[in-house]
Amino acid sequence: MKRPSTWLIAAVALLAALVYPFVFSSTEATTIGFFALLYVGLAASWNINGYTGYISLGHSAFFGIGAYTIALFATRLGLQGGYGLFAVALLGGLVAGVAALPLGFIALRVRTMHSFVIITIAYVMMLQLLAYNLESITNGPNGLGVPQPAWSGAFFNIPFYFAALVLAVGTVLLSAWIRGSRFGLGLMAIRDDEDKAAGVGVDTWKYKLTAYVISAIPIGIGGAVYAYFASYIYPQTVFDPTIDLGIVLSVFLGGTGTILGPIVGALIIQPAQQLLTLYTGNLGTAGWDLLLLGALFLVVILLMPSGIVPSLVERARRTSVREAVTKADETTPGAQTAVGGNGTS
Amino acid sequence: MSHMLEISGVYAGYGGGDILQGLDLALEERTITCIVGPNGAGKSTVMRLVSGVLHPRLGEVRFLGERIDRKAPKQILQAGIVQVPQNRSLFPGMSVAENVRLGGYILRDSALLERRYAEVSELFPIVRERAKDKAGSLSGGQQKLVEFARSLMLDPKLLLLDEPSMGLEPRILSQIFGVMVEMCRQGRTILLVEQNARLGLESSDRGVVMESGRVLLDGAARSVLGDERIGELYLGGRAH
């Protein structure tokens, strides 16, 4: 994120996001916008753990923890709906982060990817079961309500839209900062080869756990914001494997390990899913949208296995290198360099 | 005068008996010492011993007069000994620049890290030219150069080069060994283990022939190369 063009694109995108709900002010449009931005935040957050190459299919555990945190906190303390509840959503992130510490501690004990994936899926199932069965706390299968704000009509969605925007921008900035830091370099090294990473002095265990915990926090906040938006939560709607699929699909579609990838992926997947549900009626509820998204995912995996963003960046870079090499050849024929130039290929 | 590295009376192995059986070896500062010998002689075990991956059962290893044989690999890195392993050790999915920076990962001072990076890319133009390319997209020889560049990020006093010729095309070997000689000229001490004994010895100051975990012959590289018995045993006949 150094070239001015990158900043320009980011500024234009942000501006577009700011004016969107005023241009497309219908409830349908702002709902789509809300989910798209929410998933940008979720995907960017998931990707912080994804930098290590460990694929978690259980981050909806933190989504659910955040959701239950705001619901319990608001109902037990008898809080009123309003802007103040967004501050309580931050608490959802905090609780999710604290919960991630022991969960990560156990899941990251394993060194094979398959075991890690399965343990993380188990987390969602376990927490869903707990939410069903700890009736005295969670109200079991009957779910919990979140106090509603007094906003009405088309305006209702607007505060939620901007809360999701703040979450998305904040998480993307956090993810970008980590990617450019020494910590992020260590995470990427773990992803490439964990043993070699340890060999150059990366404290792999500590780094993996830190990334796991950090990535749980914005997801917890997202879960809380969602619960507030939805106004009522059930165990199966917040500890939900399809949330994980939505997140992971977004990241893989856009490109893992990149800053831009999760943004692009979420902005494609979420609106597509919402629109399909909206316009196909019964088809959407019957799961046809998931089927179509699955097909899209297959196409991407087959044609651009590393995701949209890395594929495009690689293509652009190759062209520019080719041009630079041609130019260099023209100006300095047979230029030879000091120790070990390019003569070894 | 003390030696840069001194291995004395070392017995070490992996639990199934000693591979090194009373090894004595001392390295002079700013020289290249090449260890040759048949498979199983313990050449790579010496590397593991010095880099701290393997601890001796008996005997000691001193670096600049200080015992290092009980230290962890990370402490040995910090002391100034860096190894370039024999198999490809770069992160193939990461850029050349990231790979080189990872060589200085234990440096906490980012200004120092950037200064070293500038020095290293000055010395190895390939680091600058291919900075953003994935390390895995480079040829074997180029990767070896980047590995050398990366090893210099900690400004090591002693470099351990384990079979640098392995898996490389013959025509680029002279360049790789040329770079090694250049690194030595710039003040580094090098311990080289090389299967390609002739090539290794030709670029070195001193030759050490190992057999069954002991030093069989130790002398000027030229005289080891010229030794008739050694020539027949390990060099595939005398030089033509």
In short, what is this structure?
The complex is a heterodimer of chains A (345) and B (240). Chain A has helices at 4-23, 27-50, 60-76, 84-107, 113-133, 135-138, 157-180, 182-192, 194-199, 204-230, 235-238, 241-254, 260-280, 282-285, 288-303, 308-331; strands spanning 144-145, 232-233.
Polypeptide structure, described:
The complex is a heterodimer of chains A (345) and B (240). With 345 residues, chain A is mostly helical. Chain A contains 16 helices and two strands. Chain A has helices spanning 4-23, 27-50, 60-76, 84-107, 113-133, 135-138, 157-180, 182-192, 194-199, 204-230, 235-238, 241-254, 260-280, 282-285, 288-303, 308-331, and strands spanning 144-145, 232-233. In chain A, helix 3 (60-76) runs parallel beside helix 5 (113-133) and helix 13 (260-280) packs antiparallel against helix 15. The two termini of chain A are 31 Å apart. Residues 332-345 of chain A have low confidence and may be disordered. Chain B has helices spanning 43-50, 73-79, 96-103, 110-123, 125-129, 140-151, 170-185, 197-202, 221-226, 228-234, and strands at 5-13, 18-27, 32-36, 58-63, 66-67, 81-84, 158-162, 189-193, 206-211, 214-220. In chain B, helix 3 (96-103) packs parallel to helix 6 and helix 6 runs parallel beside helix 7 (170-185).
Terminal-residue CA separation of chain B? 39 Å
Biggest β-sheet of chain A, characterized?
2 strands, antiparallel
Helix content of chain A: over 70%
Number of helices of chain B: 10
Radius of gyration of chain B: 18 Å
CATH class of the domain at 1-70 and 158-164 and 189-240 in chain B: Alpha Beta
Hey, roughly how much beta strand do the residues of chain A contain?
A: under 5%
Structural class of chain B: alpha/beta
Which geometry of chain A do the CA atoms define? globular
Structural category of chain A is: mainly alpha
The major pleated sheet of chain B works out as:
6 strands, mixed
Strand neighbour order, sheet with most strands of chain B: 6-7-8-3-9-10
Q: Give the fraction of residues assigned to helices of chain B.
A: 25-40%
Name given to the CATH homologous superfamily of the domain at 1-70 and 158-164 and 189-240 in chain B: P-loop containing nucleotide triphosphate hydrolases
Q: What's the mean pLDDT score of chain B?
A: 91
